[in-house]
Task: structure prediction
Amino acid sequence: MREREKAGTPAPVEWRALTRLVAGSLLFALIISAFSPPDARAQQERPVEAVILRPAPNPTFDEIFNAIEMGIRSRGSALSITERRLDAFASAQAMRNGISSDAPELVFTLGRQADESYRSSGLDIRQVVGGLDIEPGLGSRDGVSLTADPVFLLSRLKTLMPEKRRIIVVYDPSKDRWLIERAKAISASIGITIVAHEATTLSEASNHYWNILKYGNPETDVLWLLSNPSFVSNSNLPRLVEESWRRNFTIISNNIDHARRGTFIAIYPDLEAMGAQLADLAIAISENPNKRPEVEPLGAVKFAVNKRIASHLGIAISAQDERSFDLILGER
Result:
């Protein structure tokens, strides 16, 4: 009787066929590899060479830029990063020489100082902007806007206060027109109306704010503060909060500091996630160098709620609601 072959062991004829198949596959792979362009093979393995250009150390802003840089570096070996600080360069020429010697494919500029210094340096290496309130869309540079799409904040407000119908906002047309146009475009789908007042100075903005709080309807109206320090500052914010408290008038904001000081809710960027979004944009650019420069809207946001203000407005923040917020304020 013929001995049974062990389970899983091919018969001799099958084994020879399998060997020929494997050998043929290896030969085919070697031929394909030999005729592939060397640059294409190398590009599959090499990381994207990039420079992060940051302002000089500053206790006020370091925490912000550290978080963004951490997000950029979270993509690991996909990016090879060299950090450069503005204070390391004595002149624009020194910056050109220093960054050119790094031979990066692109430069991340974090904050306004880095952006302006890089653009005035004469370097033509592709730029990716982070940490700036800039309008999303096609342009001369890539990046991620620091300002969130208004749909996030307005939708959250409508969920918490469905009776609200009018969102009143004061804005600088030279800086925030795109934001107001976007808010108006999505307002009908949320079930609200945007009432926007233009201003160019702190005095003009403040006059609008007082009139809104004086003549607006607290039952249906909400004041929306943008993160424009020219319009909301220590000179008018305390009075705005005091007057809104007196009239039970809801204020929402694009600035987390406003929520700390007495607005109901605020939206703010998830800085580390924004850094990761910048990194993903850089990788996409490297894979498609002909991609047109574009600033993307901020895709990662966080929310803060002031529970003391919520209680005063008669809004019950449930445990489930609390879990949907990243920061709870006013509990003491």
User: Anything to note?
Assistant: The chain is about 45% helix and 25% strand.
